[in-house]
Amino acid sequence: MAGAIVAKTPHFALHRLALPGPEHGRLLFPVSGTWVGVVLPKRWAKRAVTRNAIRRQVYEATRLAASQLPPAALVVRLRSGFSREQFVSATSDVLKRAVRAELTQLLGRIAARPEVAA
Predict the structure, then answer these.
(1) For residues 25 and 67, what is the distance between their CA atoms, to the nearest angstrom?
(2) Is the confidence at residue 110, as pLDDT, over 70?
(3) Which of the pair, 24 or 78, is modelled with greater confidence?
(4) How many helices (H) and strands (E) does the chain have?
(5) Residue 48: which CATH number?
(6) Mean pLDDT across the stretch 57-65?
(7) Which residue has the higher pLDDT, 85 or 36?
(8) How far, in Å, CA of 90 to CA of 112, rounded?
(9) Does 69 reside within a domain?
(10) Residue-level pLDDT at 2
(11) What is the three-class DSSP state of 77?
């Protein structure tokens, strides 16, 4: 969360922190490439089943876009809730498609910006 917000959508914010290389001594994460974390506050997704469904969508979307993402620590943060009137079921396919579309848009913004990838 110490990293700057590099992209936003109506429901998500993407934070990025550059990872130091092995030449700087001890690594922050024992992972080369992109590291992804997820923050889903109960404030915006009250039901655990919804938070877990969103989390799975985040990890799958980043797995599919891995080749386009910069080598950095990325944190996807839910910054507003999905309407319970529009998405009645906690794990509906409609909710999953809406989340996936927004995540694809979010990750596409960081992949399309060369100054962020460096």
Answers:
(1) 26
(2) yes
(3) 78
(4) 3, 4
(5) 3.30.230.10
(6) 94
(7) 36
(8) 32
(9) yes
(10) 66
(11) strand
Provide the token pair at 82: 């999905």
Residue bearing tokens 């950095």: 72
CA atoms within 13 A on the CB side of 15: 14
- Phi then psi for 98, rounded to 5 degrees? -65, -45
φ, ψ for residue 112, nearest 5 deg: -85, -10
**Assigned domain for 27 exists:** no
Domain count of the chain? 1
In a domain, 24, yes or no: no
Q: Which helix (H) or strand (E) holds 11?
A: none
Q: Which two tokens stand for residue 59?
A: 């990890």
**Is 70 exceeded by the pLDDT of residue 51?**
yes
Residue 48 pLDDT grade (very low, low, confident, very high; cuts 50, 70, 90): very high
Whole domain around residue 107: which residue ranges?
Answer: 4-19+32-117
Q: Is residue 68 part of a domain?
A: yes
Which residue's entry shows tokens 């100054």?
115
What whole-number distance in Å separates Cα of residue 9 and Cα of residue 4? Answer: 15
Q: Which two tokens stand for residue 11?
A: 């429901």
Report the candidate in 17, 38, 39, 41 with the shortest Cα–Cα distance to residue 29.
Answer: 17
